[in-house]
Amino acid sequence: MCTRESLASGLRGIGLRAGDTVLAHSSLSSLGWVCGGPATVVRALLDVLGDDGTLVVPTQTGDNSDPALWRDPPVPESWWADIRASMPPYDARTTPTRGVGVVPETLRTWPGAVRSAHPQTSFAAVGARAAAIVDGHAPDCRLGERSPLARLEEAEARVLLLGAGYESCTTFHLAEYRIPAPRVENSFAMTTPQGRRWTTVRDTSITDDRFGELGAAFERERPVLRGRVGAAEVRLFSLPDAVAFAEAWLPRHRPRPASPM
């Protein structure tokens, strides 16, 4: 059983500190039975970080995308035009998360939370640096230099994998923007000064392929604090360190051709 107090104690025990800026990836079920559910996890994290700390989570909305690319599950081609015409535009206040767990969805609506503007790969944050981290998330930069990941790197943030694996580590995607990579068209519904628009932009192609191997190599060679919180295996490490390692590892072990200029 996990309580607010036991979770906070466990987080401090692995090295989380007051004043830290933390990007957290989490799995509620991995913790065991949590008294109070995901809100208890958020409260425990904020208890540890204190007034000077900042908690950041991914609040992705990958369903706001071109239905021609949907695979899990696919939809009939005859639906595609209607979906593109009818998809609700991203709204940072109300659009729910998808596929990132219940803790990020809970933080998204937390008092004082702010959220970045990307229609697919937003982040939400609470705390002292929250507004600066989520500001300026460009629609043609999912997880690159004009995203909260780069602001987190500048803030010397730490990554907390709370029952989540390296496959979930969005930090590694920032490295993809700094090495050769294909460019792709990316589409979504968004609100513009002219109203709702189905919009297509050019962006760097991103994939979490082999992130598990990348994480294992990072852990062998770089400082990673490990422990348990509740029943969950937990890792805590430097976000800038992880980005730098991925920039070197990915071209050697998972090269991808860049698009022609």
Summed up, what is this model?
The chain has 261 residues and is an alpha+beta fold.
Report on this structure.
The chain is an alpha+beta fold and 261 residues long. It has one domain (4-253). 31% of the residues lie in helices and 21% in strands. The protein is built from nine helices and nine strands. The protein has helices spanning 4-14, 38-49, 80-86, 102-108, 130-134, 148-154, 171-176, 211-221, 239-253; strands at 21-26, 54-58, 114-115, 123-127, 158-162, 183-192, 195-204, 225-229, 232-238. A seven-stranded mixed β-sheet has the order 3-4-2-1-5-9-8. Helix 1 (4-14) crosses helix 2 and helix 2 (38-49) crosses helix 4 (102-108). The N and C termini lie far apart (55 Å).
Chart the SSEs and their pairings.
Layout: H1 4-14, E1 21-26, H2 38-49, E2 54-58, H3 80-86, H4 102-108, E3 114-115, E4 123-127, H5 130-134, H6 148-154, E5 158-162, H7 171-176, E6 183-192, E7 195-204, H8 211-221, E8 225-229, E9 232-238, H9 239-253
Helix pairs in contact: 1-2, 2-4
Q: What structural keywords apply?
A:
261 residues, alpha+beta, 7-stranded mixed sheet, two-stranded antiparallel sheet, 9 helices, globular
SS elements, strand count: 9
| Silhouette | globular
Tally the helices: what do you get?
9
What structural class do the secondary elements suggest?
alpha+beta
Distance between the termini: 55 Å
Element order, helices and strands?
A: HEHEHHEEHHEHEEHEEH
Range of helix content: 25-40%
- Radius of gyration, rounded? 18 Å
Strand content: 15-25%
The overall average pLDDT, rounded, is: 97
Spans of 5+ residues with little confidence (pLDDT < 50)? Answer: none
Q: Give the strand order of the largest sheet, numbering strands 1, 2, ... along the chain.
A: 3-4-2-1-5-9-8
Largest sheet: 7 strands, mixed
Overall structural domain count: 1
